Amino acid sequence: MRRRCGGASMANKRIGLSKKTRFEVFKRDGFTCQYCGAHPPEAILECDHIHPVAEGGKNDQDNLITACFTCNRGKGAVSLDAVPQSLADKAALVAETEAQLRGYSEIMEAKRDRIEEDMWRVAEIIDPGSSNSGMSRDWTASIRRFNEKLGLYVCLEAADIARAKFPRGGAKTFRYFCGICWNKVRNE
């Protein structure tokens, strides 16, 4: 005959967790309650049994999860319908997120390079040699904005028209280019 102890049979008696085991579970779970997201110092963390000890759950790390005091006491000896992500699943998710961020970063960098290249194509028509000798930030910012609003080919055409009017390039060509572009923006 088995003796009962607090609702659990003696065969399912709770065995205390070592400090090392608790720390490893907390570390694995990022010192965050896996139910509500609470973390120290606002919350006191505990190790919760996914499969309750009262139902035969063991102290294996795969059966332990970080829970705040409130969530752990609220859950009690109730089994979870869905087991939280394993450490391997979390690592795979982080790796996938990192891969997506790298891909996004590469795309954004390529876009930035294309925008810069397009700007210099227009700038070279307005003021030949400007890609080597430099051009004021105000001018390059204006060209970028016009390229964005009107598109590269409309801006290249406007630059060609301005250069035909003022063949030496420079400030007069740039101002004429801006006038053409503003007229096109207003007429859209």
Task: Describe what this molecule looks like in 3D.
By secondary structure, the protein is mostly helical. It has 2 domains: 4-75, Orthogonal Bundle (DNA Binding (I), subunit A), CATH 1.10.30; 87-187, no CATH class. 56% of the residues lie in helices and 7% in strands. The strands form 2 sheets. Strands 1-2 form a two-stranded antiparallel sheet. It has a two-stranded antiparallel sheet with strand order 3-4. A hairpin with a 2-residue loop joins strand 1 (4-5) and strand 2. The relative contact order is 0.07.
- Beta-strand residue percentage: 5-15%
Number of helices: 7
Strand order of the largest sheet: 1-2
Low-confidence stretches: 1-10
Largest sheet: 2 strands, antiparallel
Average pLDDT score: 84
Overall shape: it is rod-shaped
Q: Helical percent range?
A: 55-70%
How many runs of DSSP E, i.e. beta strands?
4
Count of discrete domains: 2
Structural class: mainly alpha
Report Rg.
33 Å
Element-by-element helix/strand order: EEHEEHHHHHH
First CA to last CA: what distance? 90 Å
List the helices and strands and how they pair.
Blueprint: E1 4-5, E2 8-9, H1 19-28, E3 45-49, E4 64-68, H2 69-75, H3 87-126, H4 130-133, H5 137-150, H6 152-165, H7 171-187
Antiparallel strand pairs: 1-2, 3-4
